[in-house]
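hiii, so i know i said id send this last week but things got crazy w the move. better late than never?? heres the sequnce for the chain we talked about at the cafe, plus the structure i predicted for it. fair warning i was half asleep when i ran it
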Amino acid sequence: MEIIVAFKKSVKDDTEWYWKLAAKLVKFGTKSEFFHVETAIDDKWISANTSYGIEIHELKPINKKHYDYYKIEVPDLTIDQKEKFWRYINKQVGSGYDWKGIYLTQFIKLDWESESKWFCSEIVTKILQLLYVEDFLDKKPNKLSPGAVFEIINKIGEKIEIEK
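okay and structure toks below
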């Protein structure tokens, strides 16, 4: 089974100033070149949107100027495992973005974890755990930043190009 992980490193020129500032703060606070991460499984993008929480979209390339893409291969799940995975993910859709969690865990380094909200690297880590990606099984999802996810994926994955 193929998993694509997209790491966002920059924003569009016409992005509002406050989103540009937020991106810079996340990069600075986490000491990384990336401020956002999302993943694609079964031709569906799964991400944590700052306005809506968890979203699932049809697979389409995201602007490669702003993202680096990596592919990892994992053994196929059984039908039951895959159904269980999608049931779990679908229950998270619209759950809300964990603003409090991202600041408390990524900047202040507390062990905060919301029971009902997610930030981007937290949900990606949980997804990779649910898909049995061994290098993530012992990680706490709320402790990983986009840069920390990148450090692991960069070792086990392959950088790819996605045509727009």
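btw The chain has a mean pLDDT of 90. thought thatd interest u
miss u guys!!
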